[in-house]
Design a protein that fits this description.
The protein has 458 residues and is an alpha/beta fold. It has helices at 28-35, 93-105, 115-122, 128-139, 143-153, 156-180, 190-210, 212-220, 234-242, 285-299, 316-324, 345-351, 367-379, 394-415, 420-438, 444-451; strands at residues 6-9, 16-24, 36-37, 52-60, 63-73, 84-91, 109-110, 222-228, 260-266, 269-275, 303-309, 330-335, 356-358. It starts with 5 loop residues before the first strand and ends in a 7-residue tail after the last helix. Residues 244-258 and 381-386 have low confidence and may be disordered.
Length: 458
C-alpha cells in the first residue's frame, strides 16, 4: 500500500473560473488542516465527515493565498481508495501554482502523470482496461468514442475478459487435479470436452477481435478518401462537410493536385477525410504525382466516397475508379443534381453494387442521406445505443490475438492426441495473456508505460 501523499493541479493550466488542486494519501487531510482556516477559525478538517465540502481560506503561515472550497473524501470511498482532498480555488494560473506549492511545502509531493488513476488501479478499485478508458474519455474526439470509452469504464471489456479467463482456468484446474490425483479424477476423453470449451473461447475472442476495426474507427475516425474525375465536385463536397471554404474550388479541371486532409464530424460520425487529385490520364508531372497518391490513399481507406459528375457521361476514368472501389467499402455520390443530368442514379446502380446517393455539393443537398448511409454502413444504424463491446485499444487487440493463437494450439494438441499437460501449457499462456489486458498479469514496465500517457492531475 502506497503511504506517501501526492498532489497535482487537476484542471487546465489556463485562466478559468475555477481551478482544482487534488491530494491523495494518508496525510492529505492533515496537510489540508495545516493550511485551511474556516471563517470562524475553529473548524478542523480532520474532524470532518467524509464527502463534505467546507468553505474557507488557504494560508501559508500568515499569508492568505485564496478563498476556497475544500472537498473531503475519506478512503476507501474515493477515486484512489485513499483519503482525497480537492481544493477548489479561483482559476488563475498563478493562484493554482501557489496553492500547489503550498500543499507540497506542508508534506505532499508532486504527482507523476496518471498517478491518481494508477493508485486507483493498484488499490484494486479499477482494472487496467478501466484505467485506459479514463484517458480515452479525456481524449475522445466524438460522441461515439466517448460512449464506447464510458462503457469500457463501466467494465464491459473487463466482464468479457473475466468470463473467458474463468472458463480457461477451470479447465486448467481440472487437468492439474487429474494429474495430481489420477485415481480419483478420471481425465479420459477430457480432450473432447475441452475441445468444445476451447472452441467457444475462440469464438468469443474472435468476436472481440472482429470489433477492433470498428473500434479503431470509433476512436480515431473513419479513414475516408474522396475520389473522382477532375471537376466532379470533390473539393466542393469537402467544403460542404467541413462547413468552410477549406479547398480551392474552380471550374478548371485539375485544380486539386495534392491531398488535403481534415478531421471532421458529420452529425456525430467521425471522419478523417482526404480530398485527392482528380483521377485521369495526364501528362502533367505534378498532377500525375497527385493522381498516384489518390490511388494509394484509396487502397488503404476504410471508406471511399466516389463523386461522379452527373452532368457528364461516364468515361474510361470513371470505369477505372469503379474498378478501384469494387471490393472496398464505398459510397457513390451522384453530384450536381441541381443541374441538367446526363448520368443518372439508375445508370450507376446498373454497373456497380455500392449505394448511390444524389447530391448537390454546391447547394449542400443530400448530405443527411449520406450521414444515414454512413451510420448503416459502419455502425448498424445507431452506435450510441449499441451495447456491443468494441475493442478500441491496440494493446488489447494484440493480447487477444496472442491468446487466440494459444487456444488454437490447444485444439491442435487435442487433435494430435497429446497428453493433458500439453493442453495446460497453452491454456495457461492464453489465461495470462488475457490477464495482461485487465492488469491481473501485467508487468510493472507495462503499467508504468500506460500511465505515463496520462495528464498530470489524473
Amino acid at each position: 500500500m502506497v503511504k506517501d501523499t501526492i498532489a497535482a493541479i487537476s484542471t487546465g493550466m489556463t485562466n478559468s473560473g475555477i481551478g482544482k488542486v487534488r491530494m491523495s494519501g494518508n496525510a492529505a487531510i492533515a496537510i489540508a488542516d495545516q493550511i485551511y482556516r474556516s471563517p470562524g477559525g475553529k473548524k478542523r478538517l480532520t474532524d470532518a465527515a467524509s464527502h463534505t465540502i467546507h468553505y474557507g481560506y488557504i494560508y501559508d503561515g500568515d499569508t492568505l493565498i485564496d478563498e476556497v472550497l475544500v472537498l473531503i473524501m475519506k478512503g476507501p470511498h474515493s477515486y484512489t481508495t485513499e483519503d482525497v482532498v480537492e481544493i477548489d480555488c479561483h482559476g488563475g494560473v498563478v493562484v493554482m501554482k501557489k496553492l500547489l506549492e503550498t500543499v507540497i511545502k506542508y508534506g505532499a509531493r508532486p504527482a507523476e502523470p496518471g498517478e491518481f488513476t494508477k493508485r486507483a488501479f493498484l488499490n484494486g478499485r479499477i482494472d487496467l482496461t478501466q484505467a485506459e478508458a479514463v484517458i480515452d474519455i479525456i481524449n475522445s474526439k466524438n460522441e461515439y468514442a466517448l460512449s464506447s470509452s464510458v462503457r469500457q469504464l463501466k467494465g464491459n471489456v473487463l466482464g468479457k475478459i473475466k468470463e473467458i479467463r474463468k472458463n480457461i482456468i477451470g479447465n486448467i484446474a481440472f487437468i492439474e487435479a487429474a494429474m495430481d490425483d489420477p485415481e480419483h479424477i478420471n481425465a479420459d476423453h477430457f480432450g473432447e470436452t475441452l475441445g468444445i470449451s476451447v472452441k467457444q473461447n475462440i469464438k468469443d475472442i474472435q468476436k472481440l477481435l472482429d470489433s477492433a476495426d470498428n473500434g479503431r474507427m470509433i476512436k480515431e475516425g473513419i479513414k475516408t478518401v474522396i475520389v473522382g474525375k477532375p471537376n466532379a465536385g470533390k473539393s466542393s463536397l469537402l467544403n460542404a462537410l467541413v462547413g468552410d471554404e477549406r479547398a480551392i474550388v474552380t471550374d478548371i479541371a485539375g485544380t486539386t493536385r495534392d491531398t488535403l486532409e481534415e478531421s471532421i464530424t458529420v452529425h456525430g460520425i467521425p471522419l478523417n477525410i482526404i480530398d485527392t487529385a482528380g483521377i485521369r490520364e495526364t501528362e502533367d508531372v505534378v498532377e500525375k504525382i497527385g493522381v498516384n497518391k489518390a490511388r494509394t490513399f484509396a487502397s488503404d481507406a476504410d471508406l471511399i466516397i466516389y463523386v461522379a459528375d452527373g452532368t457528364t457521361a461516364l468515361d474510361e476514368n470513371d470505369h477505372e475508379i469503379l474498378k478501384m472501389i469494387e471490393n472496398k467499402k464505398a459510397i457513390v455520390l451522384l453530384n450536381k443534381i441541381d443541374l441538367n443530368l446526363i448520368t443518372t442514379k439508375e445508370d450507376l446502380e446498373k454497373i456497380q453494387n455500392h449505394p448511390v446517393i444524389e447530391i448537390s455539393a454546391r447547394e449542400e443537398q443530400g448530405l443527411e442521406e449520406l450521414e444515414a448511409c454512413l451510420k448503416n454502413m459502419f455502425f448498424e444504424g445507431n452506435l450510441f445505443f449499441n451495447d456491443e463491446v468494441y475493442i478500441t485499444n491496440m494493446r488489447h487487440k494484440n493480447a487477444l490475438s496472442e491468446a487466440l493463437e494459444s487456444l488454437k494450439l490447444v485444439l491442435q494438441s487435442i487433435e494430435d492426441g497429446m497428453p493433458e499437460d500439453f493442453f495446460s501449457i497453452d491454456l495457461m499462456n492464453a489465461y495470462e495473456t488475457l490477464g495482461s489486458i485487465t492488469g491481473e498479469a501485467a508487468g510493472e514496465d507495462l503499467i508504468d508505460t500506460i500511465f505515463s500517457d496520462f495528464c498530470m492531475g489524473k
